[in-house]
Amino acid sequence: QVQLKESGGGSVQSGGSLRLSCTASGFTHRRYSMAWFRQAPGKDREGVAAMDSDGRINYADFVKGRFTVSQDNAKTTLYLQMNNLAPEDTAMYYCAAGAYVAVWEIKNEYNYWGQGTQVTVSS
Fold first, then answer.
1. Cα–Cα distance, 107 to 37 (Å, whole number)
2. What is the four-CA torsion angle of 91, 115, 74, 62, rounded to 10 degrees?
3. Contact yes or no for 22/4 (Cβ under 8 A)
4. Average pLDDT over residues 16-27
5. What confidence score (pLDDT) does residue 28 get?
6. Which sign, positive or negative, has the C-alpha torsion 39, 43, 44, 46?
7. Taking a C-beta distance cutoff of 8 angstroms, is the pair 104, 75 a contact?
């Protein structure tokens, strides 16, 4: 069974940086896409960035130039480097994985989710 575990969240001031990690286990093959989503209170869960099994990366427009996705060589850990954070980035950040993701930013495309890690940015 696929399990995802996020870490690295915390509280920072505006302009600060955080690096989130998502450690995955239980993959039965390597054709999974992995993604980061976030959900702020009262808002829908939205896609932040994703990497498919071929290493192609997509970013939401609101994080381009600030956030960077990467993966370790074993493809078991997905990272999200977040720079120049702003208060509007405050949210619970979730890691997701899916075997047949056609549209990366649609949350229903993903079969597996982590529990989330909280990111809070103060002004």
1. 8
2. -20
3. yes
4. 95
5. 77
6. negative
7. no
Position 96 scores a pLDDT of 97
What would the DSSP string read from start to end of the chain?
--EEEEE--EEEETT--EEEEEEEE--SSS--EEEEEEE-TTS--EEEEEE-TT--EEE-GGGTTTEEEEE-TTS-EEEEEE-S--GGG-EEEEEEEESS-SSTT-GGG-SEE---EEEEEE-
Residue entry with tokens 């997509």: 58
**Tens of pLDDT, residues 40-66:** 999 999 999 999 999 999 999 999 899
- Residue 3 phi, psi (nearest 5): -130, 140
Where residue 27 falls among pLDDT bands split at 50, 70, 90? confident
User: Could you give the CA distance from residue 1 to residue 81 in angstroms, rounded to a whole number?
Assistant: 27
